[in-house]
Request: fold
Amino acid sequence: MIEIQPNMMQWTVEATKVREATDVAKMALGLVFASAFQVPILTQSALYRICKHPEYFDQLRAEACESQGLRFENNNREMPYLDSFVKESARLGPGPILLTEAVGSVVSVPRKAMSQYISPEGVIVPAGNWVAVPQLPLMRDAGIWPKGGGFDGFRFVQGDGRSDSRLTHPSLEFPFWGSIRHAW
Reply:
């Protein structure tokens, strides 16, 4: 008997139940592109924002100078202003999104219903249908984010300079890294 070694292709087949070789290849390439996409796009978005909003430069530079020599062991609490600035850039940037051919919209965290699902509110998702998070509208929703369409680089920093909301912390309101269950 041949032992199957776990790898990305095997995981893709098992996780998605996709069997056609072209579909497995599409899924695997999507995972590769998604993993290589976020950091460069986020970096580009943050650089764009600092150029567009030079009023943040002095505070960010001062924080960087004060943080020289710190080790990245302080429970991810170093540089709250930079973290907030980058998180806000991510919130308004394109993020890890998919342009779906079926609906022509921008979504993230796509999931296929393997069996019929009925939500507690009575919403029915038939087996075989896809559901996803409308990431761009969610990240700009003024009901969640005060002045959601506008850039506030220090949105996530409290008045005393602390921040409990970090770029690396996924939430239902901030699905930049995907679903909460899979991000942790």
Observations:
- Residues 96-104 have pLDDT under 50 and may be disordered.
- The longest helix spans residues 21-52.
- Strands lie at 98-99, 106-112, 117-118, 124-125, 130-133.
